[in-house]
Amino acid sequence: MESTSDVRSSSEDVGRRDVIKRSAALGLISVPTMSFLSACASSGGGDEDKAETGKKTAKNPLGVNDTAQMEFVLFDGGFGKEYAEDAVKIYETNFPKAKVKFSATQKIQSTLQPRFNQGTPPDLIDNSGAEQMDMGVLSSKNQLADLTPLLDAPSYDDPNKKVRDTLRPGIVEMGQLDGDPVWIMYYAYTVYGVWYSQKALDSLDEQYPETWDQMLAVCEKAKKKGIAGWTYAGKYPYYLPFSLYPMIGKVGGVEVLDAIDNLEPNAWKHPAVKACFDAYYELYQKGYVLKGTPGLDHIQSQTAWAQGKALFIPNGSWVENESANVIPDDFDLAVSAPTGIDSSDKLPFGTIWASGGEPFIVPAKAKNGAGGMEQLRIMLSEASSKNFTSKVKSLTAYNGGTDGITLTPGLKSGVAALEKAGENVVNPRMQDWYVQLQKEQIGVAGLGEMMAGRLTPAEAIKKIQDFADATAKDSSIKHYKHQ
């Protein structure tokens, strides 16, 4: 999920295993092995292997040793490697005596696990893909460098601004696991919401609906013309939260989403959750969901939607790349924050879910950790951000970087949605804190069954609350809480 087509290998087949790969590619899940878990605890290496610190100057605020080698290992996925190679060239220009060793692989864990075990990891890693290393294990075993020095360093473009002050909302918080240290820099930025064709809405003489009564009216109008209101990835119904979670946040406030993430007792029994479940169930009851949707995978549902068989689909901003071969040239792709219930909602229309993906880390035992952080500082410049966005149709963590470049329709709409949201950007963490709970239990066993008509909203809520309670009581699962 998370620019899935951007960050995963194009050779992946459709199926459950590959959906998990897409999630991992976005930094949503981790796939550790027991050998990795045990080996991290006894890795070798030491400070004696580290490069000497360079002199800190205005142009070198992190004190990079300008003659030390810097090694950068990138995940070789759908984002490609050109954007990173371009950023490496800037590093080499700034430090002409320093050699940069750059490589790209899809096998992050199997390639780098032995080097972590030996205490000789690279200086910068794009820890992504199906073989993503477990962030929680790495941090708990003191294998990651705290990126606070990077965040507090002057930004690449403006020495009067810290790097942290140039980032999009939620990026710093996503990189924290427990407490203040920031272990991860999520470089890509995904906008989640309800995706649609503006051309299709125009043909109905309708605007995107802001209240649920308006949503039902638009769907009824479409139904009379033989068009379904909604479709979704029925085989992977954990796509539904891409619009449902921010709707819950809009209706009940961010604290409702936080309580759900924190596995608080009865969090799922909040009235806002019931209101939103009832609303989605109404789409099923009134026949506004494309027939056969529960049997469709993500590609099939997106294809049907692109063919005009349904108006709306919950998805992330990767959908523009992922469905590029089926979206018509005149489709006029757009995304909106989710429709709310009515004027009693706690947050305004425009409240949207957007968050980071593509996680970069600097190992604690890196020989040239300052160099790895400096490479990230370069990548978080306006020029590098623009380069990334123009080449891979995705935003970055840098809060800007779109002026002067031609944006694709979906990307342009995503930028507009973020501008409309302002401070009302939510970032539910369920999908990267508790993968099994999110996918198999909330998604498949709860929402999937409800939207197929096999559970009522009340039954789905009870089932999901039971799953959440069991997760909260399971001592084998690491638990997280919003700071």
Automatic annotation (TrEMBL):
It is found in: Cell envelope. Signal peptide: none annotated. InterPro entries: Bact_solute-bd_prot1, Chitin_NgcE, SBP. The keyword Signal applies. Keywords: Signal, Transport. It comes from the Bacteria. Residues 41-62 are annotated as: Disordered. Gene3D superfamilies: Periplasmic binding protein-like II. It holds the Pfam family SBP_bac_1. Transmembrane segments: none annotated. This is Carbohydrate ABC transporter, N-acetylglucosamine/diacetylchitobiose-binding protein.
